[in-house]
Amino acid sequence: MEVAKLENVARVYKIGNIETQALRGVSLSIEKGEFTALVGPSGSGKTTLLQMIGCLEQPSSGQVFINGKNVSQLNRNKRADMRRGTIGFIFQFFALIPTLSAYENIEMPLLLNGKSAGERRQRISELLEAVALTDRSHHRPDQMSGGEQQRVAIARALANDPPILVADEPTGNLDSRTSDEIMDLFAGMVAQGKTLLIVTHDKNVAERARRQVKIIDGLIEQD
Fold first, then answer.
1. In sequence order, what are the beta bridge partners of 37?
2. Starting at the edge strand that comes first in sequence, how are the strands of the sheet with 69-70 ordered?
3. For 150, what's the count of Cα atoms within 13 Å in the CB-facing half-sphere?
4. Whole domain around residue 170: which residue ranges?
5. Residue 13 contacts by C-beta under 8 Å, 6 or more apart in sequence?
6. CA gap 143, 16 in Å, rounded
7. Distance of CA 102 to the CA centre of its chain
8. Res. 49 pLDDT band, cuts 50 70 90
9. Residue 26 main-chain phi, psi, to 5 deg
10. Closest by alpha carbon to 54, among 64, 63, 45?
11. Rounded to whole angstroms, how far apart are CA atoms 89 and 95?
């Protein structure tokens, strides 16, 4: 079953009279439960492709489908609605709110989805246990290591139980041991049925994926 599909997607960025073509007619299907790594040099279009699947960007041409729904021309609010229940995001630099505790950071997407206080407490407790951070729940990001911050970010991405997870260089700011721990967490999520798409420059991370898609100059060179 396809959870994401791109059909001949191009993306052109314009700054004044200068055009940069990030994607040049990419077609790609991602199956439910698949663990895919997007690899390639900097500037190849990996992150743009990830943002298309994450409904953060609209294509200049072509079509993007998420769970069978054409999201190519949805406005910003409708794309946000699609993301909220369907897609969890994990970033290289964690993107945690610095003034909030681990508990409160994980709580944010639950608040946005209108979950009750009781539902939030139960879900956050489950997630903190899943990422082995129960004893760090009241710590702010500046009181945690990089690995702990990334585990909070993963728990936050999982808060609303999205079927699709997208991660942009999720181990790029971590040491090798912590990277392995994060990849073990990801492997467990895929084993539970999540679909995972990762952008990475790290060969060891890419080799943990079941599928590698190599992008060069906005085109898929190898799949």
1. 198, 212
2. 18-31, 2-15, 61-66, 69-70
3. 24
4. 2-222
5. 19, 20, 22
6. 43
7. 19
8. very high
9. -95, 135
10. 64
11. 10
Q: Is residue 172 very low, low, confident or very high in pLDDT (cuts 50, 70, 90)?
A: confident
Angle CA 18–11–47, to nearest 5: 105
Q: What is the pTM of this model?
A: 0.88
- The mean per-residue pLDDT over the stretch 4-27 comes to 92
Q: What is the dihedral of CA 18, 24, 30, 36, to 10 degrees?
A: -70
pLDDT, mean of residues 112-130: 93
List the structure tokens of 59.
């294509």
Cβ atoms of 218 and 56 within 8 Å: the answer is no
Cα separation values, 8 from 23, 135, 144, 220, Å: 9, 47, 43, 11
CATH number at residue 24: 3.40.50.300
Q: DSSP letter at 33?
A: T
Six token digits for residue 117: 């206080």
- Lowest pLDDT segment from 4-18, 79-93, 196-210: 79-93
**Cα distances (Å, whole numbers) of residue 90 to 54, 158, 169, 170:** 11, 10, 8, 6
Mean pLDDT of 66-74: 89
Q: Which amino acid is at 92?
A: Q
Q: State both tokens at 7.
A: 């059909």
Total structural domains within the chain: 1
Whole-angstrom Cα distance, residue 180 to residue 203? 12
Tokens (6 digits) for 138: 């009241």
